Amino acid sequence: MKPALGLLSLLLSILASGAxxxxxTLERIGKSGVIRLGYLEAAAPFSRAEAGKPPAGYSxxxxxxxxxxxxAELKLPGLRTEWVKVTLQDRLQxxxxxxxxxxxxxxxxxxxxxxxxxxxxxTFVDGASLLVKLGSGLRRMSDFSGKSIAVVSGTTTVxxxxxxxxxxxxxxxVVPVADEHKGMAMMSAGEVDAYASDRLVLLxxxxxxxxxxxxxxxxxxxxxxxxxxxxxxxxxxxxxxxxRSLARVYRSGEIHKIYDAWLGKLGRPGLxxxxxxxxxxxxx
Length: 284
Known about the structure:
The protein is an alpha/beta fold. The chain contains 10 helices and 11 strands. The strands form 3 sheets. Strands 6, 7, 8, 9, 10 and 11 form a 6-stranded mixed β-sheet that branches. The chain has a 3-stranded parallel β-sheet with strand order 4-1-5. A two-stranded antiparallel sheet has the order 2-3. Helix 3 crosses helix 8 (about 235-250).
């Protein structure tokens, strides 16, 4: 093949592959008039849904703001929001498969996860801890030698908990469970001694506990969990649109209204979270 023909063939191949590429999220939303947002059913105060009611929570409010801003950016006043239920196990796959455009829950931004999906600006910073029955006498990680701890499989909490137990030389049994309901049920029945998750998620579960059984958090956190909204990889325009919306929420101070609505009863944001709000308020 002559060099000129070879170059022409290469260019045509590149153009053809580009023409067959899947449309970006903004293009798909523009054509369909629908944005699909993923939510967790029981991750209060960030994302929850009661029977017959739309999802609500801190992360839900942030995603709602993104959808509202996209109406203006895409000139789609009739843009419809479709809420899609996901679980802790399938939330990332739902983004990869295109079942949802944005996941609005309690997902920790990690480098290993970023191999498969992408993340927005950070939306919250939490720490993982342990929930125990009130009066159990379990107050610190060092109290858990010979004890058992339930944790949802497939979460970053599993690895963080195992590493911390190993670091401290604590011989505790980590019990993987399918979801937070199973973990709480096992603890309530005395089958495990604690349930591990992010601190604010644990607080929400304790407040919603059936039978009003009393729980308490231990005095320590064993990891730092930076939350972010999840979107598909290599979709730069959509990521920019999401980040532009979030930065506007931080710059305007609207984030404090959202925080007060869902977390205000816990007091003002701590230094780490308050600093995150300032640092994420990127200029336009």
